Every structure is written in structure tokens, then in C-alpha cells.
């Protein structure tokens, strides 16, 4: 007797599907904000899917979470006070808690259910949310940051795509609030989509151009993220003063002896070297 | 009345499928060596599929073909005599013919039918095969190169995966013949798979370690190839004498004023900065 085959298919574009074979559909819930699913898959281990988009997989989450944190932390090792918006799976906080120099992490996730489901099913990312330096706020990040001034050394916007609850995290008003909430040497790291498929590329350009208007330093960097559409994804590094290459001291970061699987100080420099078509998209 | 939906699904691994929506199945043939299909797709334009593996798409072939050629050409602008093995779609030769300094390109493709089909259906890659400097040989590259000595400034192995007709192009015997056929400053560029899925990673390691035993200089570089499994792919740069970073002169290449969409001289440097897990795979 043949076993039933269960596949999760993601419509990466109207004309492109990506499918992973599923061992078990572990969790499914509709929160006040979005649909949350957790799968156990053959190739990628456990997978968090929100509104039918793959957010985190056990196999490659290390790439995303190392790249969203260590580029800023190595540019300014004096970072002490951090705001993380989104990031409900906990992976971003897990990486940050590895720095003993960090004294406070405010994590603002609009959807408590993502955090609770991650704590139950994704212990590999959600295992540091009870670190005493971490304060969890289940609130709208847009409201949380409004009016705050000169407070955070680093703000990480670890959001879903700019549709649904993540939409307001891609506006000029929100970026202006981030600018104001940052200290003089403050850095903003922003999930800013992908250059390859037209929908993602449009959002990447919009997000980058808004940040570039506000911040003296604004640079995009790339990483290989196999389970996201096209596998070619970007973060933006924006700062009032610090430049991710000019103010970067590889020796200092390497002396911390942090073990990483994707990030390293050579890659730190290399990831800002973008393909010509991506540069053109960003500068147009 | 609903239109029929036609999708091409590639089994990237046993547990991962990648599917593209097809406008028209333009061509299908079984040659003496392999199955050749050409599709017209909504997202990627025309697509060459060999033995059910995507080889070339109109949308992103520029990435592959720029990266397989310009890294070597910019490391040694004195390259004059070139051997290309495989590359039946013509894209590698197209990029090479842009250099006026090149005097001869021997292209050895085992399967004439790939070339003829590409000339008919993929003019965007196959449009320079009639350049007077190009000599087409429809032979086995392994036999062609055997016994040749001190002849080529550059050998590019633009092969399919190491299964089927491409298999012999990943052996130590073949690499030794390449070594012998190269001039003192000769460079070998080799398609060497991907670090992400286990099957590809195994082949990447095998190929790299064989080259590393033979050549004083052996470095891997990465590129984003969205329509290949995982999107994270690698070439090997092997040479008796020239180093892709130490012997690289960005000013000289930029003075050529070649327009590229992916490759640029910053990226040239950046693409050799590999993620930690990839370095570990290569050095183990």
C-alpha cells in the first residue's frame, strides 16, 4: 500500500511554485493577524509558514539570523540597547544574546501566537526569549516606536513582506520614527526583500529609497537564502554615522570567538559587493 | 472555458520541487546523449532543459555566463587562446567574443543537437557561434584535450551535472589533462555545483579537492542563480600561477568599458568571500 504524499506548495510568483515534501503538519492556527502553520519537512526540517509564505526553516534559518544581526554588531561592538521589531520565531534574539556586551533587547512582536507557537515547535530559534535581558512586548511596533528619541543603538526590523501586518513597517513615517529613536551612532537593519522577481524588486527599491532619503549612510547587502523566492535576498544597513565597511574592524569581531555558520568577517565585506543590475535597481 | 495550465516541474531533490508555468513546449528531442527540451515560460522566458534539469533561462542566463567568463578574463587580460568544453547553448562563447584581444576559441560540445536547437530557439545565447574566431568541435571534450600541452590560456568547463555525459568532466584524469593543456599563466574555470543540498555539496567538494591537489592556486567563487537548486552556485578558479584577487587589476578591466548586468569589479572581489559553512565544506 502506497503512503500518502503530502507536499506544501508555495506560489512564489503567479508563475513559479516551490514545493517541499511534508512529514507532518504540526500546527495550524489563525491568529488575529495572520495564518500560522508549522510543518515538519523531509528536506528542511521544521518550517514556519505565515500566510502561505515560508518564514523560517530549520535547515537555513542560520543564514537569515546571522546576517540580520552580526553585520551591525561587528560594525559597532559598543551596541548595548536594542529594539527588535517582528522576529516572532526568536532567531534574531538568539543571535543577539550571544553578545555579553548587550544589556537590553526590547522585542516587539504584534502577534503573540507566533512567539508561543515558535516556543513550542521551533526551539532551535525560540530558545533565548527568556534571557533576562530580553523584554517581550506583544504590541504594534509602529505604535511602540512612535515618539521615542535617542534611545536605541540598534533597531532591527525583522518583518514579513510588506503585505498584511508587515505593511506599515515599510513606510517613510515608520522609518522616520526609527531614525528618531536611534542614538547618534545608531544603526537600522531592515529586511528589504529581493532584486529578482518583479514584485520583490519593487518593494526592495521602495524601501531602500525611503531609507536613503533619511539616513546619511544607507547600504544594501545580500545573502543566499535558498527557501525564499529566488534565493537572492537583501538587508538594508542605515545609520546616521557609522559605515558598515569604513567603520568595520574585523580583528575586533574575530577576537570575540563567536562560532557562526554563514557570517564571517570576509563575507561581511563581500556581501556589500552587489551585482550590477541590483546596484542599478537601488540607484535608479 | 478555462485554459489548460501547463507546468514544468523539476525535482530539485527527492523532497523539493521547483515548477514554472509554461506557455508552450517549443522543442523536444532525444539525442545520442541526452533528452533536450526547450520551453517558453511566463516567468523566465525561454528555458533549455536537459535530462529534466534546467540549464539556461532567458531571464537569468546572464548571471551564469558573465560569472563563468569575466572573472578569468579580468584576472588575465592577455588571454588569447581559449578552450570551452560543453556550453552548447552558446552563452559562454557569446561573452568571450566581446573581448577583441581573444584570437581563438575552440568550443568542444559532445552533443551537436544542443547547439543546433539553441541556434534555432535560443538566439540570445547562441548568437556568436559563427564568430570567425570560434571553432566548433562536436566531440568528447575528454578525448579532445587528451595529450595537448601548453596550448590554452584559459579552459572553461561549462558542463552539466556529474551524471550522464558530464560525468567524465569531474575526474582527476580530466583535470590533469586540463593542467597539461594550459599555458604557464593558464586558468581553468570549472562549474562546481552548489553547497546547499547534500548531493550537490558532495560533488562540489569532490571537484574542488581534485583541483586543489593539482593546481597551486585553487579558489571557489559564488553567484546567485535563482533557477538552479537552492540558488547558491559555485565556480572553481584554478591556475598554475595567477591568483584571482592578487593578480587582479580592476582599473584595467573597467577601462574596457564592457557593459555587464551581474559581474563588476567589486563583485569580482566579493564573490570569493564565502560563507563559513561553505569554506568548511571545501577545506575538510
From TrEMBL, chains A, B:
Spans through the membrane: none
Domain PABS: from-to ranges: 5-240
Positions annotated to bind spermidine: 65, 89, 158-161
Coiled coil regions in record: none
Record keywords, A-Z: Polyamine biosynthesis, Spermidine biosynthesis, Transferase
Keyword GTP-binding appears in the UniProt entry: no
Active site per UniProt: 158
GO BP annotations, alphabetical order: spermidine biosynthetic process
UniProt-listed Enzyme Commission number(s): 2.5.1.16
Pathway the protein contributes to: Amine and polyamine biosynthesis; spermidine biosynthesis; spermidine from putrescine: step 1/1
GO CC list: cytosol
Superkingdom: Bacteria
Gene Ontology molecular function: any one: spermidine synthase activity
Gene3D superfamilies: Spermidine synthase, tetramerisation domain (2.30.140.10), Vaccinia Virus protein VP39 (3.40.50.150)
Catalytic class of the enzyme: transferase
Binding residue positions for S-methyl-5'-thioadenosine: 34, 109, 140-141, 165
Pfam families, sorted: Spermine_synt_N, Spermine_synth
Annotated CDD domains: AdoMet_MTases
Reactions it catalyzes: S-adenosyl 3-(methylsulfanyl)propylamine + putrescine = S-methyl-5'-thioadenosine + spermidine + H(+)
NCBIfam families registered for this protein in UniProt: PRK00811.1 (NF002010), speE (TIGR00417)
Function of the protein: Catalyzes the irreversible transfer of a propylamine group from the amino donor S-adenosylmethioninamine (decarboxy-AdoMet) to putrescine (1,4-diaminobutane) to yield spermidine.
HAMAP family, per database record: Spermidine_synth
Summary of subunit composition and partner proteins: Homodimer or homotetramer.
Family named by the database record: Belongs to the spermidine/spermine synthase family.
Name recorded for this polypeptide: Polyamine aminopropyltransferase
Naturally occurring in which organism (per UniProt): Clostridium gasigenes
Lineage: Bacteria, Bacillati, Bacillota, Clostridia, Eubacteriales
Gene designation per UniProt: speE
